[in-house]
Amino acid sequence: MSQRKLWMGFAVIMGISMSPARAQSADQQSADQKIQQLEERVDELDQQIKIDERKKELDAEDAAAKAQNGATATADTSGFTIKSNDGNFLLKIGADLQVDNRAFLGQGASAGSDGMLLRRVRPTISGTVYKYVDYFFRPDFGQGTTVIYDAYLELKYFSRAKVRVGKFKPPVGLERLQSDDDTTFVERGLPTLLVPSRDIGYQISGDLLPNQLNYSVGVFNGVPDNGLSDAAVSGHRDYAGRLFLTPFNGTPVKALSGLGFGSGIDGGGVDGEPLPSYKTFGQSTFFTFASGVTEAGHRMRLTPQGYYYAGPFGVLSEYTLTEEGLKKGLVQRDVAYRAWQVQVSYILTGEKKGFTSPTPKKAFDPLHGGWGAVELAARTGEFSAEHGIYNYGFATTAASPRTARERVGGVNWFLNRLVRVSLDYGLTNFGGGAAASLGGNRAPERVLIGRFQINFI
Asked: What is the number of domains present in the chain?
């Protein structure tokens, strides 16, 4: 109620109280009615004030709820992202597209077919629910097939003990754990042939020392070398573990901050598993087993590994030893395969080399002086199978070489953080793999592979 109305009411009351006695009896009833009306009006105004105040409270609560439950959408080098304002929910949509052109050159061209193909076509959906649970889903539609490569969730409440469940890369090979978009060469080296690609299982991982000592341990269904599966093929399980150190990361010893080394190991039963096959840099199968051979017994993989990055320079090396049981007829033996590689690279434009792809100092924009980043790289490596594989009849030297020696050189052009063009030349020489009448050795593979790639995940 306004002050003016209050004063008027007060004046009326005072006027009535001061009127002559003879008027009181006549006007008393009228004065009482006016007082009652004024009191009712005051109550109405007081109630209206309370209603207005409550409305303001509700509006404030609604604004707070919108601020908490609302979301923002962004698009950047990480893909398209929708994130709740309270940080509890996150949805990221990304993609990975690789278009390859393979040309087999000179002698040994029959080992592969020239042509262009969609090497990888992988949409990616990932994110977070209730702040502490991440999820990741990525199928692949490349090369005319449909395969689920990754499908897992991870509880990350405890940074030293993150729990991952689903289908993902077991913690074994170093270059295998590198993203398909971040590898220095268009195809991985020979040691990756002897480690699993993806498997279904459980894993616990984390940093025992922040950014210096990382561990992973897990139990998986078990898959052949370089294989993957959506179901268990037997009742056996594989057990895997990995320790990796970057001891000078975050220390004053800057020259060694890019040093990392460690080892992965896994093992388990192989009865009932499919036999692996091994492919060259040009993705031609060069090693197969004889008819009637099956997996039997146990398998063990050991992978010492390491890298060193200093400014634009990088070197990565790993060695893989696989021992597994094979059976043919009444003969059952454990046999071994070995592979190693060393790769070196240098970014001519000065960007920092690392385990992930570099970000160009200047993205491709020639009119404004930007040409991206350019990297030169070389790799050497070897695969070998022990003599017992041939002595026991598990394979024949006329069809499956005992050794494969690889030399690869390449150049990578990063137009920006998301787009990359690569050109690699690979030469693979074989020890064995052909009939004696043909010289005993499979013809060398010479292949030129160009790749156009875009990825944001």
From this structure: 2
